[in-house]
């Protein structure tokens, strides 16, 4: 036994022993990163390189799953991980042996440090790359700053604010031990039944591109080298936001024309302008080819055409799905081979991958150079992030960065701009002295449902609920709260009657309803990842609650807290004031209250169309010309609220739309200017939107395409002239031959405060 132990000891220490007394080149921070990478790889065996491609879930995550879930539950669960026959203690040993390259779901700085300590004991002392779903703040870490959900961020039409929030998220991540954010989700959301709409930036490729680029730049800056930055992950490649039946990971069949003109532009813009260091493939099969085995998408387009120069990670067990779900591979070995050959560089998550990949190389089915390509990029991330020198967290940095006052300020500012006023019949803003008794009720009024998906329980002191915000903004009023419970499925007639009785005694009723994507409510949540629906109305008895309170005659306001568009035609028709708050985050309750009482003028605009009914799906603003050829016979074809729509307490008048030229060559640019006047007595912010239409085209193009927007602040009585630069690429489109061209002909240039026709000024442009 002693002889065997000595052989093992010599084997695992041989690489460093061979380096001599001097510090090895790859551990010398003064050496160029490329030189450090090549030196380290020269010391690595094939197995060493392959294990860098292996990611596992955190030890504490595994322990919780091991203790509380059955094997059957774990196998069908998309959020909990364990490995049959491999206990968490054995995984810890693997880290110490240098057999794991990355972790996810590591939720405390203590666990991150422990894992890095184990990794530092490994033969080559290669640090771990720790990834986390920091979608709108580092929400899985307790104590983080939580910003509005991405759909709310998009409502702000303020990429600069989104970039700032992402930069702050990076600081909080690095302080607490993570270096890799699995965000942004830059899929185009075209079906509100899909539970992940709130994780996206909406339905428009230009807006999604702007927000995606801003997020990546905030996380990585121009160069993610350094100890205060993280790498971003643009996902999911591609077209998962329009699943065939509205459910996550369902198949998608779409033409190359639609791919290139609608779904791929955010990835093209992100890769070429912001350079995310990682991409993530999508769950579903695209035109019959699962994205995790789609070489055309992952390699030919992302790498060769767009110039992606990082590494691609699989999504949760989606390599295995090529065999288990999609049935394009007979064995797990075939699945891994297909996926890595297509372009996947890291396996999320679990065992068997390393052993099988080694066999595939030995069999000649995967080249060692392909392994080297993946390993080299993963190591590059670790070197550039400074992990070889700074792998541990610092308590002082945590105290300084996490939920700092500056970060709270940004979260509040972003929440204020993300909230959309949908309807206002002269009820808002509220006079805080007018209403002596205010009723607040509804399942989302006084809990952390405002935090959105990808957030675990946060300290109560870090969260301002909507009830708390109202109480603070209405110091002269008696604010009465009826707790109907947070569970949307358990609001019964007794709770409704209790609310009605209280409403009759009050001067004003504020009802906070919607959906629940909060991860702490895992079994009860109605929105978020893998919470897809067959309907998009209010869940449970919420509308019954609203109608009952309305019938009391007490003036009623409805605040929607949700991640997906909800069809609420009765509320839209009857309730005098309706606010779409989305999921506004840590400071959301304060932002909502400030808008209610006029301390802040609402300025959010919808980044997605809200339909009247689930039967209207697909309901988008950028539809094709024949979309409404035959109107439905049992309802209106128009949306409940159009893309780009949002009211203000100010009134904005658009006039004097002017083009610098009304006839241009295909290669020429032009300027578009418009006057915007605040005709009210209230300071306000407006999002000025520019759309185009190619009047006649082959193939067909949408009736409107957003190409530019500007958020402006404008004083009462002030007139501002807003100028946009339109370049040839803004008019271009992929034609039937997949050439990106500007067609000759007539274009309509449209500018206004939303995509709705009656809101838009129009001019004709001739291109030759």
Topology:
Blueprint (H helix, E strand, L loop, with lengths): L1 H16 L15 H11 L2 H6 L2 E4 L1 H10 L2 H5 L12 H9 L5 E3 L4 H12 L8 E4 L17 H6 L3 H18 L3 E2 L23 H16 L12 E5 L18 H8 L1 H10 L3 E4 L3 E2 L2 E2 L4 H11 L5 E3 L7 H4 L7 H11 L4 E2 L4 H10 L5 H17 L10 H7 L3 H14 L1 E5 L12 E5 L24 H8 L4 E5 L10 H11 L4 E7 L27 H9 L5 E6 L7 H6 L2 E4 L7 H9 L55 E8 L3 E2 L5 E9 L5 E11 L10 E10 L4 E8 L1 H4 L1 E2 L5 E2 L3 E8 L7 E8 L1
Helix pairs in contact: 2-17, 4-6, 6-7, 9-10, 9-18, 9-19, 10-12, 15-16, 19-24, 20-24, 21-22
Structural overview:
The protein is 32% helix and 17% strand. By secondary structure, it is α/β, with parallel strands linked by helices. Mean pLDDT is 94; it is low at 1-21. It is globular, with a radius of gyration of 27 Å.
